[in-house]
Amino acid sequence: MDYQLKPLVERAKAGDNEAVAEILERVKPLMLSSISKCHSVIMDDEDLYQEAAIEVICSIKDFDDERNVPFLVFLKKRIFYRLKNLTRCERQSLSLDQPIGDGASTLADIIPDARPSVENIVQTEQQHRHLCMAMAALTPKQRRVLKMHYLQGMSMADVSRKDGLHYQAVIKLKERALKNMRIFMEDDI
Fold first, then answer.
1. Are 188 and 133 in contact (CB under 8 A)?
2. Cα separation of 183 and 170, whole Å?
């Protein structure tokens, strides 16, 4: 495959240092373009340029003409990803103790706590106790219908088949059970 810089690449692969220097000079705009895309906080542009030059030299050795990929395409990807890998771990990290705004509060102060409050836990436990007491006040048939329908996820038709009751009887048992529980819960509160 013919491509731009083919004679220089062949000479450089053979060990000609002048060919390597010529390639470095010709691909300098490519290296500078890649450097401008990879901003670095730690490394300055001169260090990134040196890294790009090292990658050019390594790419000359690794380039395989048999793959039918032009050298500049091969080189562009190699330089870009080498620089990207060098600069990707430089993201600024934030501390939750870092002051924000006027300095009186921190990030930790404004992040909501996902855990339930103590008041919510106590209230939920009280509601659970009231519900258990209301269930205990029901007849065994009413309790059984509610458990199968709400806890086991059975349809009313399935409950009626399982208990051998008429569908309307199961519906009425459920309605009476819910009415009795509502009355018990209102009286208890």
1. yes
2. 20
CB neighbours of residue 32 within 10 Å: 13
- For residue range 96-136, list pLDDT tens digits in order: 777 777 767 887 777 777 888 889 899 999 988 988 888 88
Which of the four CATH numbers 1.10.3260.10, 3.30.450.20, 1.10.10.10, 1.20.910.10 does domain 118-188 have?
A: 1.10.10.10
Q: Per residue in 66-102, is it b (16+ CB within 10 Å) or e — as a string?
A: eeeebbeebbbebbbebbeebbeeeeeeeeeeeeeee
Q: DSSP assignment, residue 92? A: P
Sequence spans of domains, the chain: 6-89, 118-188
Tell me the whole-structure pTM to 2 decimals. Answer: 0.47
**Domain 6-89 - what CATH class?**
mainly alpha
CB 177, CB 145: distance < 8 Å: yes
